[in-house]
Structures are given as C-alpha cells and as structure tokens.
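Action item from last meeting closed. Structure (225 res):
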C-alpha cells in the first residue's frame, strides 16, 4: 500500500514510517497542514494516517477539504483526544477510522489493512479472480489452491491488478502506487516491465491463465476478456 503519514511529532512520524515500511508499504510523510494538503492533492494514497493537532491547523479541516474535493483516499485519525465527542467529530468529518494515542503499531497496521479492504476489496479477507485467490490477511496467493511464491512487489502488483481488474492501468499509476516518491523523477519504466514479466511467468508456471494484457503506449489490463 501507499500511505501518507501526517504527524506533527517528527519522532513519532519517523517511528510509524519505519514500522510500516518494514511491513512492506510505501510511506510518505508531512508534518504541517499545508504540506499535507499539497501531497494529498498531487498524489493518490491507499490510506492517510492523520494527526488532528498540527502546527498550522486542525487535521479535521484537512479531512473536510479532501472530502469536499471528492477525494476517496482512506483516512485514519491518530489523536490524543479520546473523548466520545472527539471520536464522533472525527468520523463525521469524513474519516474512516479513529485510533487514540498511545497505540500499538500492530493495531495501527491492522486498522490500515481494514480500511484498504473496505475501500478497495469490498471488506474481504480473500479476493478471488477465477483460479487466483489472494489472502490479504496473510499476504498469500494461491493458484487453484497451489501456493504461489511472490516477492513483495510482485504480490503488491498482483493485488493492485486484481483490485482493478478489467480496468486499463497506466505505468505511471503503477509506479506511484508501488514505488511512491522514490521514482518520481524516473525517465524509464523498464523496471515495471520486468516485474510484470516475472509475475506473469510465475502465474502461468503455477497453472494459471495469462490475464495480464499489455496496452501499447499506455500500460496494462488484468482481464479474462
């Protein structure tokens, strides 16, 4: 997943970022309201982890602004405010979930995964596309009940394809979702071709069909049509 962390305490922001990166996620961060809005407007995220108290504004105002702009990114509030009224205000502003500080990183990760499933995978722990089954809780993939061993990037790529099956996906959107700012200035997407080729080969060798279609000059489509 691609995650934006908006947290005013730099040490906590770094700790969250490091933990989620170890989980295999792409993480970007912002410590001010202005920077956060610019990043959210310029990019697409699977989840935004948001502190409510920022040095230049209220985190709830960010949520209201993004929702007013019809942004559908998942939003998880992190806050030291733990009253029922604060939680209701946060959820009513447009957040998907509310987690109070202090918290365990494992719970944070679980909440982020839950938001992603609700927003992208209809809340399912298992996503099935014909003979392909993806267990999102265990990050496992099966081809006709045979385990398929993938690298983390191959797994993320397959899940992105399955979640957007039959849609034409640009190479730029794949780079943005799976690599983030690390490749924002790249002049070549040849590495995308390598990952797609390896994923296609593994699926076919495991007995699956070739669902990945190249759309010349544009990107890819994961389809059985």
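Sequence:
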């Amino acid at each position: 997943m691609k995650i934006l962390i908006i947290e005013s305490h730099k040490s906590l922001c770094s700790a969250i970022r490091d933990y989620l990166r170890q989980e295999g996620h792409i993480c970007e961060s912002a410590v001010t309201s202005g920077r956060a809005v610019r990043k959210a407007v310029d990019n697409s995220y699977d989840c935004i982890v948001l502190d409510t108290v920022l040095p230049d504004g209220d985190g709830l105002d960010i949520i209201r602004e993004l929702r007013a702009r019809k942004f559908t990114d998942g939003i998880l509030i992190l806050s030291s405010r733990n009253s029922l009224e604060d939680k209701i205000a946060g959820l009513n502003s447009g957040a998907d979930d509310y987690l109070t500080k202090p918290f365990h990183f494992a719970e944070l990760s679980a909440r982020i995964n839950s938001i992603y499933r609700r927003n992208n995978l209809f809340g399912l722990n298992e996503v099935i596309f014909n003979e392909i089954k993806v267990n999102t809780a265990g990050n496992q993939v099966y081809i006709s009940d045979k385990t398929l061993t993938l690298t983390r990037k191959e797994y993320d790529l397959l899940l992105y394809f399955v979640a957007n099956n039959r849609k034409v996906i640009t190479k730029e959107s794949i780079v943005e979702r799976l690599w983030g700012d690390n490749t924002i200035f790249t002049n070549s997407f040849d590495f995308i071709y390598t990952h797609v080729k390896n994923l296609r080969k593994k699926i076919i060798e495991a007995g699956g069909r070739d669902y990945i279609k190249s759309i010349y000059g544009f990107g890819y489509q994961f389809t059985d049509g």
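Note appended to the action item: The domain at 2-120 is CATH 3.40.50.2300 (Rossmann fold).
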